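The protein record reproduced below.
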Amino acid sequence: FSAWEPIFDRYDRRRGQHGASVLVPSKYSMTAMIFVVMLSFYYFSRHVEKLARTLFLWKMDVHEQKERVSEMRRWNEALVANMLPEHVARHFLGSKKRDEELYSQSYEEIGVMFASLPNFADFYTEESINNGGIECLRFLNEIISDFDALLDEPQFRCITKIKTIGSTYMAASGVTPDAGANGFGAKKEPRSDTERWQHLADLADFALAMKVTLMNINYQSFNNFMLRIGMNKGAVLAGVIGARKPHYDIWGNTVNVASRMESTGVMGNIQVVEETQQILKEFGFRFVRRGAVYVKGKGELLTFFLKGREKPGSLLGSAAVPLPHQVLENS
């Protein structure tokens, strides 16, 4: 300002010669103006910096929220997939699903199995030695978990666990898309009986594998539990019911008969009706005729006990790994 002071004084004198009144010398007014401009720039820069910091923190918070939402969605998907079959879970997790929409699916060729532990009721006690029954439930959980682990085997991928009712295990075959039946990408051309009922043979293998698993558990725990299993095949209606704790289940005459085959069966045996026996014997399964059994609501039905399998795999020529219960033919 000292360097420009003569110029401002000369400017003020010329303005005075022309009759203009100068209240504040130009050098002071210009100094104040420059100071105000610098102060404005400083305030503006600080404001911009504050906005930038706020925007950065907001972006970080949004990123963290997105991560939490993604993690929560993964947990929800895993929970739904654990509660429902995979293809049903995809239906409910889809973006086009309406809340009031009811999921249902009809199947014409399904295998149903009930497997119970009749002597578990005698094993269960609520005495102090069993911690009020908790140890008995823990042991039952280990048995059911071992049965569930069998479903992870590739051979049993077409089998779906439906539910457990007390110590009874319920499963079905043919309700998954990769079963190649009952819709879900089923082949349009006619298929042989062997192709159509391969999932039923897998369900029978699963029942036999459950018996082997329980036998190993008995050996390790010095117990003598035995399975009583009933199987049937036919048409069912599947669906998910309930607004809270939705449950996937199947209904129909096929389910009722399978349940009766279990309840009227004999411990240590797998009981089937004649129609199921006729199909499974084509896959190399061995049966023992039991005879006529009275079934409530059905009258007397001819039943058979499934005892094992003579050949590993099916008649499709697949190189399946023999299960412990399968007996190889001598060449």
In short: The two ends are 114 Å apart (CA to CA). Strands lie at 104-116, 159-165, 168-173, 228-241, 247-251, 270-273, 285-295, 299-309. Residues 180-187, 313-331 have pLDDT under 50 and may be disordered. Residues 5-66 form one domain.
